[in-house]
Design goal:
Helix content is 27%, strand content 29%. It is α+β, with helices and mostly antiparallel strands. The protein folds into 2 domains: 6-121, Aminotransferase class 4, branched-chain amino acid transferase, N-terminal domain (D-amino Acid Aminotransferase, Chain A, domain 1, 2-Layer Sandwich); 130-274, D-amino Acid Aminotransferase, Chain A, domain 2, CATH 3.20.10. Helix 6 links the parallel strand 11 (196-199) and strand 12. The relative contact order is 0.13.
């Protein structure tokens, strides 16, 4: 983090160097919580309503009691104020971390939460095409916790290490049944015959914010989109393959060193609307 970062901890502004956690902290001891990453662009929290929806879904799955402050309409203004204090209003990355408070071993004594928001200036991502290989070391697993971020973080850490070892831009994760699932920090989509495809949630992929917006876009434009269980070989037959997350959309130019054709008017239209 940058020096002198100002944080929002349980509703109070604090300086980074003042932040202290007890040894009993359940995020540290048991990873008992979740996180949400939001992009700030030109003074706007992009897709904030979708993020709020996923925050509530995650809390429900983990049986956490969210404070009213996080759900209140005024919370958006508080987050933008924090972005301004950290010079991140033009373009920044906000992370909300929520975890169960209190003591206990695996069985907690409370469902109340503590929470922390950090905001840092960031650089808009490069939109160039990426090269991807299939991850061999880990597989995604569908569960009541797989659709949001946090509980399965180590899976993506290991996939990230493999990406580094393989010197790839990203890694394609497969489910235990060897179906296409997702990338390290993005959902994956492809186009064939004027129809979009993306892995079904039962492959264990995260229910991404951009994924939700692409599904909504297709519904509004009356474009067919299928959520499927497909194997890697079927991607080679696509007209275009791309990744999507809150930072944007990137085409995939190579999969397992095989070139993928990516000129597609439907994808161009989608990118122009959601960029």
């Amino acid at each position: 983090m940058q020096k002198n970062l100002i944080l929002l901890y349980n509703g109070q502004l604090v300086h980074e160097e003042e932040l202290l956690f007890p040894l009993s902290n359940r995020a540290f001891q048991y990873n008992d919580g979740f996180f949400e990453t939001v992009i700030i662009q030109n003074g706007i929290l992009r897709f904030w309503q979708d993020h709020k929806e996923r925050i509530q879904e995650a809390a429900k799955a983990l049986k956490l009691q969210l404070p009213q402050q996080i759900l209140a309409p005024a919370f958006e203004d508080e987050l933008l104020k924090l972005a301004g204090l950290n010079a991140a209003t033009a373009y920044g990355r906000l992370k909300l971390k929520v975890w169960r408070s209190g003591a206990g071993l695996y069985t907690p004594v409370s469902n109340a939460v503590e929470w922390l928001v950090t905001v840092q200036p960031a650089t808009p991502p490069d939109i160039k095409s990426i090269a991807v290989s299939v991850c061999q070391n880990v597989r995604t697993i569908h569960s009541p916790l797989s659709h949001f971020k946090g509980p399965n973080a180590l899976l993506y850490v290991l996939a990230g290490l493999e990406k580094k070892e393989q010197q790839q831009d990203d890694m394609l994760l497969l489910s235990r049944q060897l179906y296409v699932s997702e990338l390290v920090s993005s959902n994956i989509f492809w186009v064939k015959n004027d129809r979009f495809y993306t892995p079904a949630l039962d492959t264990g992929c995260v229910n991404g914010i951009m994924r939700r917006n692409i599904l909504r876009f297709c519904a509004s434009e009356k474009i067919k989109i299928d959520q499927v269980n497909y194997q890697v070989e079927q991607l080679y037959e696509a007209d275009a393959v791309f990744s999507a997350n809150v930072t944007g959309i990137k085409t995939i130019s190579h999969l397992q060193s095989k070139e993928i054709y990516n000129k597609n008017k439907l994808l161009d239209h989608l990118t122009s609307v959601l960029s």
